[in-house]
Each structure stands twice: as C-alpha cells, then as structure tokens.
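Annotated sample (chain length 142).
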Amino acid sequence: MFAMFVMLAVIATVVSALFFIYFKYVKIKNSTARKMEICGYCILLVLIIWEFGIKNIAMNEFYNLDFWVIKEKIDYVFLGIKNLSSGSSVDSLYANYGTIEDGNDYVNMQMLFVDIAELIMQVLSTLFIAIGRFQELRKKEK
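Output written by the structure step:
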C-alpha cells in the first residue's frame, strides 16, 4: 500500500515538473502540438488493440508452452525413476532435465522485447497527448 502511495506521489511530481517545464521553456506551434496529440491517440489505439486483442490470443500459446515444459519435466522425472531401478545414474537424468529450460530463453527474450516496446509506446502516447493538452491550456491562458 505504501509503495502505491509513493508511486502516485512520484507520478504527480513528475507530471507537475513536466507541466512547469513545458509552460516555461517549450515553444511549439499549435498545429504541431495538435498533430502530436493525434499521433499519441493513434499510438494509444494501437496499444489498446494490441493489449486486448492480439496479446491475449498470442499469450495463450505462451501459457500452453509453460504447461508443456512442466509435462516434459515430469516425464523426465518418471523416466529417471524407471531408469534408476534398472541401474542408470542420476547424472544422465540431470543432463536431460537441464536441457528443457534452454528452449525457453528465446521465448523469454521475445516477451521482454515486447514488454519494452509496449512500455516505450505507452510513454510516447502519454507524452504526445500531454503536449497537445498542455498547448491547449497555454492557448486558453493567453
């Protein structure tokens, strides 16, 4: 709960600082600010479609991949138990068991890339929309 309060306070401070900096130092034409705002809304639309449409469908396959990895590990454990009774060593089981995780590194790297790209798009969308709104407030002030 405290972390959420701190995060809210940090966000409010950053937005206030950006608001002050924008009014004090940034000079943008009204038409440019309007185009940036429209671009921000377009990015936001792409993010909404991505989050609620494509990502939910695609993530279903990644979750199924996790179940496949669990199934493979259980299969190797039971195979190892069966082989131990016939005189095989534990080292061969460990070698096979350790190779299962190697296939997930590529998937995890892809998911990290998608999360970073999504974060960048969210920040850009917020920034572009804020510039358009700030410009409108500046115009009303004069």
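Annotation: The two ends are 41 Å apart (CA to CA).
Annotation: The mean pLDDT is 77.
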